């Protein structure tokens, strides 16, 4: 295939995404992330189907229009309830509905969903089919390569075949097992060994299915290496703790400019959103807690974090706190993404 023909192939919608992260990837973080990358696919925190049926839907599912492309991640295992929840999510005009088959927390284990569902591919397939019937949106699955004593290849391939047969539009695979007993959720993100090769093998076996890989990927170089084998990469905490990384995504993975030439400029563009949310009664600290990883390694970063941590929590704190924190950040030249990569 010529380079021109290869370049003509449309890039997968799942080429780069920021993972759903409980208590972290809320609407404030997602807006700030969007100001760093137009192309990143963003995911909500997991929302249970039961919460959608019985809770405050605007609080649970509302978002800022700037966040698109945006996927909602659902948790649950009741087929009909998930179908009803998916229909409601479609009414909120999300771009994708993702089913959580990977979270190992006690909460999801007690609810018999998340990573527990790796043991029941047919139930997951039934959930996918019901959601597909209820909504025109793409329905995807985020899973592990197995749980506990499952043999990873058998578990992953069984899950993938079942959900694809049910109509799943894409798979996101966290390339680790989950141990439901004996490891905390944090340990489950770090202790079980990564098996990227198994996910690559799945892609080879299912070339027509969009497959994204997740787990331990923390640099543009690592993303590029994975994209030689799969359709997309998903990163979570690496992006959260170093949000400036997202500035490189658009130019280096999609060939288009980033929305702003620096994280400083992105934060300046974030200020009107902050002002609007403060006017709606949101506490400044609930927004700025997502900004503490900005400017990592740059002069003034520590002073920036300290200023936000000290003053954003105070009663009546306003956007001026962010302005003052920005003034503490060194305004040195920020090299282009291509230069940062080659440095």
Entry keywords:
alpha/beta, TIM Barrel, 2 domains, eight-stranded parallel barrel, 8 strands, 343 residues, disordered C terminus, 44% helix, Four Helix Bundle (Hemerythrin (Met), subunit A), globular
CATH architecture of the largest domain: Alpha-Beta Barrel
Give the strand order, joined by hyphens, for the main sheet.
Answer: 1-2-3-4-5-6-7-8
Largest sheet: 8 strands, parallel, barrel
Helicity, as a percent range: 40-55%
Tertiary shape? globular
Which whole number gives the mean pLDDT?
A: 92
The CATH superfamily of the largest domain is Aldolase class I
User: Strand content of the residues, in percent?
Assistant: 5-15%
Structural class determined from secondary elements: alpha/beta
Along the chain, the helix and strand elements come as HEHEHHEHEHHEHEHHEHEHHHHHHH
Give the number of DSSP strands: 8
Domain tally: 2
CATH class of the largest domain: Alpha Beta
* Total DSSP helices: 18
What value does the Rg take, in angstroms? Answer: 20 Å
